[in-house]
Amino acid sequence: MKIQILGMGCPKCKKTAEVMHEAAIKLGLREGSDYVLEKVDTINEIMKFGVTITPGVAIDGKVMVSGKVPSISEATTYITNKLSEGVV
């Protein structure tokens, strides 16, 4: 799973990265094998996602939230929902 943090490095963008990392760890995921945390920090790349207000989060290319720092609860929900998409 690829978790992408959409933002140019502001404090809210950094906090969003921390929250998403913490949520993944809380769910028992291991960085590098279960998920990759990627920062998308150029305006052109961010705009390709259709995000106009940062911070934003995309998981496997799908935007989950933009314009706010998600709570741990919201972040775990985004990840859990994405993981459940792979279940038949």
List keywords for this structure.
88 residues, alpha+beta, Glutaredoxin, four-stranded mixed sheet, 3 helices, globular
Number of strands: 4
State the shape. globular
Percent of residues in beta strands: 15-25%
Strands of the biggest beta sheet: in what spatial order? 2-1-3-4
CATH architecture: 3-Layer(aba) Sandwich
CATH topology: Glutaredoxin
What's the order of the H and E elements?
EHEHEEH
Count of individual domains: 1
Please identify the oligomeric state: single chain
How many helical elements?
3
Content-based structural category = alpha+beta
Question: How would you describe this protein?
Answer:
- There is one protein chain.
- The chain is of the alpha+beta class.
- It has one domain: Glutaredoxin (3-Layer(aba) Sandwich).
- The protein has helices at 11-26, 43-48, 72-85, and strands spanning 2-6, 36-40, 56-59, 62-66.
- A four-stranded mixed β-sheet has the order 2-1-3-4, with helices on one face.
- Helix 1 (11-26) packs across helix 3.
- The longest helix has 16 residues, at 11-26.
- The mean pLDDT is 94.
